[in-house]
Protein backbone atom coordinates (compact mmCIF):
# COMPACT_ATOMS: atom_id res chain seq x y z
CA UNK A 1 0.00 0.00 0.00
CA UNK A 2 1.42 3.40 -0.98
CA UNK A 3 2.04 6.09 1.59
CA UNK A 4 -0.64 8.25 -0.07
CA UNK A 5 -3.17 5.43 0.18
CA UNK A 6 -2.29 4.85 3.83
CA UNK A 7 -2.60 8.57 4.60
CA UNK A 8 -6.02 8.91 2.97
CA UNK A 9 -7.24 5.74 4.74
CA UNK A 10 -6.09 7.04 8.12
CA UNK A 11 -7.81 10.37 7.50
CA UNK A 12 -11.03 8.69 6.37
CA UNK A 13 -11.12 6.45 9.44
CA UNK A 14 -10.48 9.40 11.77
CA UNK A 15 -13.42 11.30 10.27
CA UNK A 16 -15.65 8.24 10.66
CA UNK A 17 -14.61 7.83 14.28
CA UNK A 18 -15.29 11.52 14.99
CA UNK A 19 -18.92 11.14 13.94
CA UNK A 20 -19.62 7.85 15.68
CA UNK A 21 -21.39 9.64 18.51
CA UNK A 22 -22.82 7.83 21.56
CA UNK A 23 -21.37 4.48 20.50
CA UNK A 24 -22.08 2.37 23.56
CA UNK A 25 -25.87 2.24 23.88
CA UNK A 26 -29.19 4.03 23.45
CA UNK A 27 -29.77 7.27 25.34
CA UNK A 28 -33.58 6.89 25.36
CA UNK A 29 -36.14 4.23 24.47
CA UNK A 30 -36.75 5.95 21.10
CA UNK A 31 -33.35 7.47 20.18
CA UNK A 32 -29.92 5.95 20.47
CA UNK A 33 -28.16 9.28 19.87
CA UNK A 34 -30.32 12.40 20.26
CA UNK A 35 -27.49 14.55 18.86
CA UNK A 36 -27.40 12.53 15.62
CA UNK A 37 -30.90 11.09 15.38
CA UNK A 38 -32.36 14.50 16.23
CA UNK A 39 -29.81 16.56 14.27
CA UNK A 40 -31.07 19.53 12.25
CA UNK A 41 -30.93 19.58 8.46
CA UNK A 42 -27.96 21.98 8.56
CA UNK A 43 -26.09 19.74 11.00
CA UNK A 44 -26.72 16.66 8.84
CA UNK A 45 -25.45 18.39 5.69
CA UNK A 46 -22.35 19.61 7.54
CA UNK A 47 -21.53 16.04 8.58
CA UNK A 48 -22.09 14.80 5.02
CA UNK A 49 -19.80 17.49 3.60
CA UNK A 50 -17.00 16.75 6.05
CA UNK A 51 -17.20 13.06 5.25
CA UNK A 52 -17.30 13.60 1.48
CA UNK A 53 -14.16 15.77 1.61
CA UNK A 54 -12.31 12.83 3.24
CA UNK A 55 -14.00 10.10 1.21
CA UNK A 56 -13.14 11.09 -2.35
CA UNK A 57 -9.33 11.12 -1.85
CA UNK A 58 -9.64 7.80 -0.03
CA UNK A 59 -11.56 6.24 -2.93
CA UNK A 60 -9.13 7.61 -5.49
CA UNK A 61 -6.08 6.19 -3.74
CA UNK A 62 -7.56 2.88 -2.58
CA UNK A 63 -9.89 1.70 -5.36
CA UNK A 64 -8.72 1.19 -8.94
CA UNK A 65 -12.39 1.23 -10.03
CA UNK A 66 -12.90 4.73 -8.65
CA UNK A 67 -9.50 6.01 -9.75
CA UNK A 68 -10.20 4.99 -13.35
CA UNK A 69 -13.63 6.57 -13.16
CA UNK A 70 -12.29 9.89 -11.81
CA UNK A 71 -9.67 9.98 -14.55
CA UNK A 72 -12.15 9.04 -17.28
CA UNK A 73 -14.51 11.83 -16.18
CA UNK A 74 -11.61 14.30 -15.95
CA UNK A 75 -12.39 14.92 -12.27
CA UNK A 76 -10.18 15.09 -9.20
CA UNK A 77 -11.20 14.20 -5.66
CA UNK A 78 -11.29 17.92 -4.83
CA UNK A 79 -14.04 18.36 -7.42
CA UNK A 80 -16.44 16.37 -5.20
CA UNK A 81 -16.05 17.76 -1.70
CA UNK A 82 -19.67 18.55 -0.76
CA UNK A 83 -23.21 17.34 -1.30
CA UNK A 84 -23.71 20.04 -3.94
CA UNK A 85 -20.81 18.57 -5.94
CA UNK A 86 -22.32 15.09 -6.19
CA UNK A 87 -24.26 15.94 -9.36
CA UNK A 88 -20.91 16.09 -11.20
CA UNK A 89 -20.54 12.34 -10.65
CA UNK A 90 -22.75 10.13 -12.89
CA UNK A 91 -24.50 7.38 -10.95
CA UNK A 92 -22.81 3.98 -10.66
CA UNK A 93 -25.11 1.10 -11.56
CA UNK A 94 -24.92 -2.63 -10.94
CA UNK A 95 -23.81 -3.46 -14.48
CA UNK A 96 -20.75 -1.23 -14.13
CA UNK A 97 -19.79 -3.01 -10.92
CA UNK A 98 -20.47 -6.41 -12.51
CA UNK A 99 -18.20 -5.62 -15.46
CA UNK A 100 -15.43 -4.63 -13.05
CA UNK A 101 -15.89 -7.87 -11.12
CA UNK A 102 -15.68 -9.93 -14.29
CA UNK A 103 -12.58 -8.07 -15.47
CA UNK A 104 -10.83 -8.47 -12.09
CA UNK A 105 -12.20 -11.69 -10.56
CA UNK A 106 -13.20 -12.66 -8.01
CA UNK A 107 -13.56 -9.42 -6.03
CA UNK A 108 -13.27 -6.60 -8.55
CA UNK A 109 -11.90 -3.18 -7.62
CA UNK A 110 -15.13 -1.42 -6.61
CA UNK A 111 -14.36 -1.73 -2.90
CA UNK A 112 -11.36 -0.50 -0.92
CA UNK A 113 -10.62 -3.88 0.68
CA UNK A 114 -7.25 -5.22 -0.44
CA UNK A 115 -6.07 -8.80 -0.01
CA UNK A 116 -3.55 -7.60 2.57
CA UNK A 117 -6.23 -5.84 4.60
CA UNK A 118 -8.59 -8.83 4.29
CA UNK A 119 -6.01 -11.14 5.79
CA UNK A 120 -5.09 -8.65 8.52
CA UNK A 121 -8.50 -7.54 9.80
CA UNK A 122 -11.12 -9.09 7.57
CA UNK A 123 -14.53 -9.73 9.11
CA UNK A 124 -16.94 -11.33 6.65
CA UNK A 125 -17.63 -11.73 2.95
CA UNK A 126 -21.08 -11.03 1.53
CA UNK A 127 -22.61 -11.17 -1.93
CA UNK A 128 -25.58 -9.68 -3.70
CA UNK A 129 -28.54 -11.95 -4.41
CA UNK A 130 -27.63 -12.36 -8.07
CA UNK A 131 -31.21 -11.75 -9.25
CA UNK A 132 -29.85 -9.48 -12.00
CA UNK A 133 -26.56 -10.75 -13.39
CA UNK A 134 -23.71 -12.38 -11.51
CA UNK A 135 -23.52 -11.80 -7.75
CA UNK A 136 -21.11 -9.05 -6.71
CA UNK A 137 -18.76 -9.88 -3.86
CA UNK A 138 -17.99 -7.56 -0.95
CA UNK A 139 -15.42 -8.14 1.80
CA UNK A 140 -15.79 -6.18 5.02
CA UNK A 141 -13.38 -5.45 7.85
CA UNK A 142 -13.73 -5.64 11.62
CA UNK A 143 -13.96 -1.85 11.60
CA UNK A 144 -17.02 -2.16 9.34
CA UNK A 145 -18.57 -4.62 11.77
CA UNK A 146 -18.42 -2.06 14.56
CA UNK A 147 -20.10 0.59 12.43
CA UNK A 148 -22.75 -1.88 11.25
CA UNK A 149 -23.82 -2.89 14.74
CA UNK A 150 -23.90 0.75 15.86
CA UNK A 151 -26.00 2.02 12.91
CA UNK A 152 -28.30 -0.99 12.96
CA UNK A 153 -28.71 -0.61 16.72
CA UNK A 154 -29.88 2.97 16.18
CA UNK A 155 -32.48 1.70 13.70
CA UNK A 156 -33.67 -1.07 16.02
CA UNK A 157 -34.21 1.43 18.84
CA UNK A 158 -36.26 3.57 16.46
CA UNK A 159 -38.39 0.52 15.65
CA UNK A 160 -39.02 -0.17 19.33
CA UNK A 161 -36.81 -3.24 19.64
CA UNK A 162 -34.71 -3.51 22.79
CA UNK A 163 -33.94 -5.44 25.99
CA UNK A 164 -36.87 -7.36 27.39
CA UNK A 165 -37.86 -8.70 23.99
CA UNK A 166 -36.98 -12.00 22.33
CA UNK A 167 -36.33 -11.99 18.58
CA UNK A 168 -36.92 -15.14 16.53
CA UNK A 169 -34.78 -14.81 13.39
CA UNK A 170 -36.47 -16.73 10.58
CA UNK A 171 -33.65 -16.51 8.09
CA UNK A 172 -30.66 -18.48 7.02
CA UNK A 173 -27.16 -17.19 7.64
CA UNK A 174 -25.77 -17.25 4.13
CA UNK A 175 -23.59 -14.52 2.58
CA UNK A 176 -26.32 -11.89 2.69
CA UNK A 177 -26.10 -8.80 4.82
CA UNK A 178 -29.45 -8.38 6.54
CA UNK A 179 -29.44 -11.22 9.08
CA UNK A 180 -25.79 -10.76 10.06
CA UNK A 181 -26.09 -7.00 10.52
CA UNK A 182 -29.20 -7.35 12.66
CA UNK A 183 -27.67 -10.20 14.67
CA UNK A 184 -24.68 -8.08 15.73
CA UNK A 185 -26.89 -5.08 16.52
CA UNK A 186 -29.17 -7.20 18.71
CA UNK A 187 -26.12 -8.47 20.59
CA UNK A 188 -24.92 -4.89 21.13
CA UNK A 189 -28.36 -3.97 22.48
CA UNK A 190 -28.46 -6.99 24.77
CA UNK A 191 -31.57 -8.44 23.12
CA UNK A 192 -32.20 -12.18 23.38
CA UNK A 193 -32.26 -14.08 20.08
CA UNK A 194 -33.62 -17.44 18.96
CA UNK A 195 -31.85 -18.46 15.71
CA UNK A 196 -34.31 -20.04 13.30
CA UNK A 197 -32.18 -21.17 10.37
CA UNK A 198 -32.35 -24.73 9.06
CA UNK A 199 -35.91 -25.38 10.27
CA UNK A 200 -39.18 -26.07 8.47
CA UNK A 201 -42.41 -24.22 9.16
CA UNK A 202 -43.72 -26.77 11.65
CA UNK A 203 -40.57 -26.62 13.76
CA UNK A 204 -40.68 -22.83 13.78
CA UNK A 205 -44.37 -22.80 14.68
CA UNK A 206 -43.70 -25.08 17.63
CA UNK A 207 -40.85 -22.84 18.81
CA UNK A 208 -43.23 -19.87 18.81
CA UNK A 209 -45.73 -21.89 20.84
CA UNK A 210 -43.16 -23.19 23.30
CA UNK A 211 -40.57 -20.42 23.75
CA UNK A 212 -42.76 -17.30 23.25
CA UNK A 213 -40.68 -14.90 21.12
CA UNK A 214 -42.06 -11.36 20.96
CA UNK A 215 -40.53 -10.33 17.60
CA UNK A 216 -40.36 -12.29 14.35
CA UNK A 217 -37.70 -11.36 11.78
CA UNK A 218 -38.52 -12.55 8.25
CA UNK A 219 -39.71 -11.54 4.81
CA UNK A 220 -43.40 -10.52 4.54
CA UNK A 221 -44.23 -13.50 2.33
CA UNK A 222 -42.69 -15.91 4.83
CA UNK A 223 -44.68 -14.38 7.68
CA UNK A 224 -47.86 -15.12 5.73
CA UNK A 225 -46.72 -18.67 5.13
CA UNK A 226 -45.74 -19.30 8.75
CA UNK A 227 -49.02 -17.84 10.02
CA UNK A 228 -50.90 -20.38 7.91
CA UNK A 229 -48.68 -23.16 9.27
CA UNK A 230 -49.68 -22.16 12.80
CA UNK A 231 -53.34 -22.21 11.82
CA UNK A 232 -52.92 -25.66 10.29
CA UNK A 233 -51.54 -26.87 13.62
CA UNK A 234 -54.56 -25.49 15.46
CA UNK A 235 -52.83 -22.33 16.75
CA UNK A 236 -53.96 -18.73 16.29
CA UNK A 237 -51.05 -16.45 15.29
CA UNK A 238 -52.95 -13.43 16.64
CA UNK A 239 -53.06 -15.06 20.09
CA UNK A 240 -49.37 -15.98 20.09
CA UNK A 241 -46.62 -14.17 21.98
CA UNK A 242 -45.58 -12.26 18.84
CA UNK A 243 -46.08 -8.49 19.18
CA UNK A 244 -43.93 -7.19 16.34
CA UNK A 245 -43.05 -8.34 12.81
CA UNK A 246 -39.65 -7.12 11.64
CA UNK A 247 -39.50 -7.30 7.84
CA UNK A 248 -36.84 -6.87 5.17
CA UNK A 249 -36.05 -8.22 1.73
CA UNK A 250 -39.47 -7.46 0.19
CA UNK A 251 -41.93 -4.56 0.28
CA UNK A 252 -44.52 -4.79 3.05
CA UNK A 253 -45.61 -1.40 4.34
CA UNK A 254 -45.80 -0.04 0.79
CA UNK A 255 -48.48 -2.56 -0.20
CA UNK A 256 -51.47 -1.69 1.95
CA UNK A 257 -53.56 -4.86 1.29
CA UNK A 258 -50.58 -7.11 2.06
CA UNK A 259 -49.80 -5.12 5.18
CA UNK A 260 -53.40 -5.42 6.35
CA UNK A 261 -53.54 -9.14 5.63
CA UNK A 262 -50.38 -9.83 7.65
CA UNK A 263 -51.37 -7.57 10.56
CA UNK A 264 -54.82 -9.19 10.72
CA UNK A 265 -53.26 -12.65 10.65
CA UNK A 266 -50.73 -11.99 13.40
CA UNK A 267 -52.39 -9.18 15.36
CA UNK A 268 -48.94 -7.57 15.46
CA UNK A 269 -47.28 -4.31 14.42
CA UNK A 270 -45.07 -4.30 11.31
CA UNK A 271 -41.70 -2.53 11.28
CA UNK A 272 -39.40 -2.49 8.28
CA UNK A 273 -35.72 -2.35 7.39
CA UNK A 274 -34.30 -1.27 4.02
CA UNK A 275 -30.84 -1.47 2.53
CA UNK A 276 -28.64 -3.06 -0.11
CA UNK A 277 -25.38 -4.97 -0.11
CA UNK A 278 -23.54 -2.53 -2.36
CA UNK A 279 -23.98 0.84 -0.64
CA UNK A 280 -26.11 0.39 2.46
CA UNK A 281 -25.07 -2.88 4.09
CA UNK A 282 -25.92 -1.40 7.46
CA UNK A 283 -29.37 0.09 7.78
CA UNK A 284 -30.54 2.28 4.94
CA UNK A 285 -34.18 2.82 5.80
CA UNK A 286 -36.07 2.09 9.00
CA UNK A 287 -39.44 2.86 10.55
CA UNK A 288 -40.01 5.02 13.62
CA UNK A 289 -42.59 5.49 16.41
CA UNK A 290 -44.51 8.03 14.29
CA UNK A 291 -45.32 5.50 11.56
CA UNK A 292 -49.06 5.58 10.89
CA UNK A 293 -51.90 6.83 8.78
CA UNK A 294 -51.94 10.23 10.51
CA UNK A 295 -48.69 11.20 8.75
CA UNK A 296 -49.54 10.14 5.21
CA UNK A 297 -49.34 6.39 5.67
CA UNK A 298 -46.19 4.31 5.41
CA UNK A 299 -42.74 5.86 5.33
CA UNK A 300 -39.16 5.02 6.26
CA UNK A 301 -36.39 7.24 7.56
CA UNK A 302 -33.02 7.22 5.80
CA UNK A 303 -30.02 7.69 8.12
CA UNK A 304 -28.35 10.78 6.65
CA UNK A 305 -25.32 11.22 8.89
CA UNK A 306 -24.01 7.94 7.43
CA UNK A 307 -25.40 8.20 3.89
CA UNK A 308 -26.54 10.70 1.28
CA UNK A 309 -29.81 9.72 -0.40
CA UNK A 310 -31.13 11.10 -3.67
CA UNK A 311 -33.82 10.23 -6.18
CA UNK A 312 -33.21 10.39 -9.93
CA UNK A 313 -35.29 10.19 -13.08
CA UNK A 314 -35.39 6.55 -14.31
CA UNK A 315 -34.66 7.58 -17.91
CA UNK A 316 -32.08 10.38 -17.57
CA UNK A 317 -30.67 9.39 -14.16
CA UNK A 318 -30.61 13.07 -13.25
CA UNK A 319 -31.89 14.30 -9.85
CA UNK A 320 -35.63 14.89 -9.66
CA UNK A 321 -37.19 17.89 -7.90
CA UNK A 322 -38.06 17.66 -4.22
CA UNK A 323 -41.29 15.74 -3.71
CA UNK A 324 -41.13 13.97 -7.08
CA UNK A 325 -41.00 10.20 -7.43
CA UNK A 326 -37.69 8.75 -8.58
CA UNK A 327 -35.15 5.96 -8.22
CA UNK A 328 -33.05 5.79 -5.05
CA UNK A 329 -29.35 6.63 -5.23
CA UNK A 330 -27.07 6.18 -2.20
CA UNK A 331 -23.65 7.56 -1.32
CA UNK A 332 -22.35 5.48 1.57
CA UNK A 333 -20.42 7.61 4.08
CA UNK A 334 -19.65 4.95 6.66
CA UNK A 335 -17.44 2.07 5.64
CA UNK A 336 -13.77 1.23 5.49
CA UNK A 337 -14.36 -1.38 2.79
CA UNK A 338 -17.31 -0.25 0.67
CA UNK A 339 -17.96 3.48 0.67
CA UNK A 340 -19.72 4.13 -2.63
CA UNK A 341 -20.33 7.35 -4.55
CA UNK A 342 -23.86 7.67 -5.97
CA UNK A 343 -24.73 4.00 -6.32
CA UNK A 344 -28.05 3.41 -8.08
CA UNK A 345 -29.99 1.27 -5.61
CA UNK A 346 -32.96 1.58 -7.95
CA UNK A 347 -36.11 1.55 -5.80
CA UNK A 348 -38.92 3.97 -6.57
CA UNK A 349 -39.91 6.36 -3.79
CA UNK A 350 -40.55 10.03 -2.96
CA UNK A 351 -38.27 11.83 -0.51
CA UNK A 352 -39.62 14.20 2.13
CA UNK A 353 -37.21 16.47 4.06
CA UNK A 354 -39.82 17.87 6.46
CA UNK A 355 -39.39 17.16 10.21
CA UNK A 356 -41.03 13.98 11.49
CA UNK A 357 -43.29 13.78 14.54
CA UNK A 358 -40.79 11.34 16.09
CA UNK A 359 -38.24 14.17 16.43
CA UNK A 360 -35.98 13.09 13.56
CA UNK A 361 -35.12 15.40 10.66
CA UNK A 362 -33.55 12.65 8.57
CA UNK A 363 -35.19 12.41 5.14
CA UNK A 364 -38.18 10.09 4.81
CA UNK A 365 -39.08 7.79 1.91
CA UNK A 366 -42.82 8.35 1.64
CA UNK A 367 -44.80 5.24 0.84
CA UNK A 368 -41.61 3.27 1.56
CA UNK A 369 -40.32 1.29 -1.42
CA UNK A 370 -42.85 -0.43 -3.65
CA UNK A 371 -40.90 -1.37 -6.75
CA UNK A 372 -37.30 -1.81 -7.86
CA UNK A 373 -36.43 -0.74 -11.39
CA UNK A 374 -34.90 -4.18 -12.04
CA UNK A 375 -38.31 -5.77 -11.40
CA UNK A 376 -40.21 -3.58 -13.85
CA UNK A 377 -42.30 -5.59 -16.34
CA UNK A 378 -42.62 -4.20 -19.86
CA UNK A 379 -45.56 -5.92 -21.54
CA UNK A 380 -46.42 -4.63 -25.00
CA UNK A 381 -45.07 -1.20 -24.08
CA UNK A 382 -47.01 -0.96 -20.81
CA UNK A 383 -44.73 -0.88 -17.78
CA UNK A 384 -45.74 -1.98 -14.29
CA UNK A 385 -44.34 -3.68 -11.20
CA UNK A 386 -45.21 -7.08 -9.73
CA UNK A 387 -46.18 -5.17 -6.58
CA UNK A 388 -49.00 -3.51 -8.54
CA UNK A 389 -50.38 -6.95 -9.39
CA UNK A 390 -50.00 -7.82 -5.71
CA UNK A 391 -52.02 -4.72 -4.77
CA UNK A 392 -54.82 -5.91 -7.06
CA UNK A 393 -54.78 -9.54 -5.93
CA UNK A 394 -54.70 -8.69 -2.22
CA UNK A 395 -57.71 -6.37 -2.65
CA UNK A 396 -59.95 -9.29 -3.68
CA UNK A 397 -61.43 -10.93 -0.58
CA UNK A 398 -60.95 -14.62 -0.02
CA UNK A 399 -57.97 -15.32 -2.29
CA UNK A 400 -55.09 -17.40 -0.96
CA UNK A 401 -51.75 -15.91 0.03
CA UNK A 402 -49.86 -17.20 -3.01
CA UNK A 403 -50.16 -15.96 -6.59
CA UNK A 404 -48.06 -16.17 -9.72
CA UNK A 405 -47.49 -13.95 -12.75
CA UNK A 406 -46.80 -15.94 -15.92
CA UNK A 407 -45.54 -14.09 -19.01
CA UNK A 408 -45.62 -15.95 -22.33
CA UNK A 409 -45.58 -15.33 -26.10
CA UNK A 410 -48.59 -16.58 -28.08
CA UNK A 411 -47.69 -18.89 -30.94
CA UNK A 412 -50.47 -17.73 -33.24
CA UNK A 413 -49.54 -14.06 -33.41
CA UNK A 414 -46.30 -13.60 -31.45
CA UNK A 415 -47.99 -11.32 -28.90
CA UNK A 416 -46.66 -11.22 -25.34
CA UNK A 417 -49.41 -11.89 -22.79
CA UNK A 418 -49.78 -12.21 -19.03
CA UNK A 419 -51.66 -14.73 -16.94
CA UNK A 420 -52.13 -14.34 -13.21
CA UNK A 421 -52.75 -17.52 -11.23
CA UNK A 422 -54.57 -17.20 -7.90
CA UNK A 423 -56.02 -19.65 -5.38
CA UNK A 424 -59.62 -19.93 -4.16
CA UNK A 425 -62.07 -22.64 -3.14
CA UNK A 426 -64.31 -21.63 -6.07
CA UNK A 427 -61.76 -22.57 -8.68
CA UNK A 428 -61.88 -23.60 -12.32
CA UNK A 429 -62.67 -21.84 -15.64
CA UNK A 430 -66.17 -20.94 -14.50
CA UNK A 431 -65.09 -19.31 -11.26
CA UNK A 432 -66.88 -15.99 -10.73
CA UNK A 433 -63.61 -14.57 -9.38
CA UNK A 434 -61.93 -14.68 -12.79
CA UNK A 435 -63.52 -11.44 -13.97
CA UNK A 436 -63.20 -9.82 -10.54
CA UNK A 437 -59.44 -10.39 -10.37
CA UNK A 438 -58.93 -9.39 -14.02
CA UNK A 439 -60.78 -6.12 -13.43
CA UNK A 440 -58.70 -5.39 -10.31
CA UNK A 441 -55.47 -5.98 -12.25
CA UNK A 442 -56.62 -3.77 -15.10
CA UNK A 443 -57.38 -1.00 -12.61
CA UNK A 444 -53.90 -1.21 -11.08
CA UNK A 445 -51.75 -1.93 -14.15
CA UNK A 446 -53.86 -0.62 -17.06
CA UNK A 447 -53.43 -3.91 -18.91
CA UNK A 448 -55.64 -6.91 -19.59
CA UNK A 449 -54.54 -10.18 -18.04
CA UNK A 450 -55.87 -13.69 -18.22
CA UNK A 451 -56.73 -15.05 -14.79
CA UNK A 452 -56.65 -18.66 -13.70
CA UNK A 453 -58.26 -19.60 -10.39
CA UNK A 454 -56.82 -22.83 -9.01
CA UNK A 455 -57.56 -24.86 -5.89
CA UNK A 456 -56.10 -23.81 -2.53
CA UNK A 457 -52.57 -25.12 -1.87
CA UNK A 458 -51.85 -25.60 -5.60
CA UNK A 459 -49.09 -22.99 -5.92
CA UNK A 460 -45.72 -23.52 -4.21
CA UNK A 461 -45.55 -22.07 -0.73
CA UNK A 462 -43.07 -19.26 -0.12
CA UNK A 463 -40.32 -20.57 2.14
CA UNK A 464 -38.34 -17.33 2.36
CA UNK A 465 -38.41 -14.72 -0.42
CA UNK A 466 -41.28 -14.87 -2.90
CA UNK A 467 -40.60 -15.43 -6.60
CA UNK A 468 -43.80 -14.24 -8.23
CA UNK A 469 -42.83 -13.80 -11.89
CA UNK A 470 -42.33 -16.65 -14.35
CA UNK A 471 -41.14 -15.02 -17.58
CA UNK A 472 -41.38 -17.51 -20.44
CA UNK A 473 -41.51 -14.96 -23.27
CA UNK A 474 -39.51 -15.55 -26.41
CA UNK A 475 -36.56 -13.17 -26.46
CATH superfamily of the largest domain: ANL, N-terminal domain
Tell me the number of structural domains: 2
Going by CATH, the architecture of the largest domain would be 3-Layer(aba) Sandwich
Content-based structural category: alpha/beta
- What is the level 1 CATH name of the largest domain? Alpha Beta
Termini Cα gap: 47 Å
Number of contiguous helices: 13
Multimeric status of the protein? single chain
Strand content: 15-25%
Helix content: 25-40%
Q: What would your notes on this structure say?
A:
The model has no long low-confidence stretch (mean pLDDT 90). Helix 7 (142-158) crosses helix 8 (177-189) and helix 9 (201-211) crosses helix 10. The chain is globular, with a radius of gyration of 23 Å. An eleven-stranded mixed beta sheet has the order 4-3-5-6-7-8-9-13-12-11-10. Strands 18-17-16-19 form a four-stranded mixed beta sheet. The N and C termini lie far apart (47 Å). It folds into two domains: 1-372, 3-Layer(aba) Sandwich (Rossmann fold), CATH 3.40.50; 377-471, GMP Synthetase, Chain A, domain 3 (2-Layer Sandwich). It is 33% helix and 21% strand. With 475 residues, the chain is α/β, with parallel strands linked by helices.
Amino acid sequence: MSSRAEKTRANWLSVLAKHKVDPDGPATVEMWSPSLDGASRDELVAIQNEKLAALTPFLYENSAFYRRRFDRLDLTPDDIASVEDLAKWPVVDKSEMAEDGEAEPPYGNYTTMSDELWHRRGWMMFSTSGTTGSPRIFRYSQIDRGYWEWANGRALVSMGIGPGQVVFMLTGYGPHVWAWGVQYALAKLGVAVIPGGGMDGTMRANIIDRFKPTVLLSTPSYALYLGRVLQGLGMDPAKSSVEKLFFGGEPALAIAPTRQRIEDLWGARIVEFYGCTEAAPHTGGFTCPALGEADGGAFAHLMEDVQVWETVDPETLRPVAAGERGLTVCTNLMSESSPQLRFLVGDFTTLNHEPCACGRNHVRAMGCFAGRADDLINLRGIKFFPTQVEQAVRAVDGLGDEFQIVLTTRDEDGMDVMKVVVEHAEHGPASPLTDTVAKAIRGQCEIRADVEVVAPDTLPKTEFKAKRVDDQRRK
